[in-house]
Structure formats: C-alpha cells, structure tokens
Amino acid sequence: MRAIYLFAVVILSLPIFSMAKGIETAKQVEQNLWVMGMPREEVIEYFSQQGGDIVISLLSVPEQSQTAESTWVTENGMAFYHVAIPGADGLTLAKVRLLDKVLLEHKDKNVLVHCASGNRVGALFALRAAWLDGKEKDLALKIGRERGLTSLEKTVSEMLAQ
What pLDDT, in 10s, does the model give residues 93-110? Predict the structure, then answer.
C-alpha cells in the first residue's frame, strides 16, 4: 500500500509538460518582462503577488487545453492572452506582430511570457527583434537565446537570412 501511495505522490507531482526542458522558473529579461517554460499554479500565484499584471501563453491549442492556466491567471487578478504557436509552423510575422501588439499595449505592466520550455518564447522574441525592431541577425539571435531559444535557433536563423 505504501508503494502505491509513493507512486501516486510522484505521479501527481510531475509537471504537465515534464518532457520539456528549458527555463523552469521565471527569468526577468527586461524591466517589466519575465519569460519561462510552463508555469505551475503556484508560480502564477507568486507572479501575481509580486505585482504581475499580464500572462501571455505561447502554448499550442492542444497544450493549452491540458492546463487550467487561464483560470489560475484570472483568479489571481491578472489578464491572460493566448498566442498559439504550434512549433516552427507558428513562427510567422502575424504571430510576432500579435505578441508585439500585446506587449506594446501593456508596456508599463509586468508581463510573463511562456511556452512549454521557453524555446518558442525565445524564437518569437528573436524574430521580433529582427523584423520589427531592425536588429542585426546575430543580436536578434542573442536576444532570442536570452529568452529561451534553443532547438528552434536553426529555423529562426534561416528565417532571418531570407
């Protein structure tokens, strides 16, 4: 019986997206901007308690449907935005502009942007830096890496070379 209990505790303590490796805790990258992989409920609550205002999820629609995150965010008095990025195919100018629009509308607010690992966050910020802010490719990729860009770096680099 004790073995079943311990097994249940281990299973219940695993994060929903346990396969994702990346930024596991919120990382402040600008004055009002934090990035991370998939936040747990207690992270959302803590972000709110520390003055968080906005949470932007870049999870795909299927990933987002597996979490109660939007409820956690709104129950903690924050606004929730979902900009679905289903992997490399979701890295488009339209999605970069949408993220930029939300960030600019809330430039004086404390914002947390996340995906499952931080990789898509970094990818979108690298593309934003190059396409919208006019940064050189190397600097844009550096900005992306600082925000979680890992396995999508080759894709982003190729997109910036076009």
Answer: 999 999 999 999 999 999
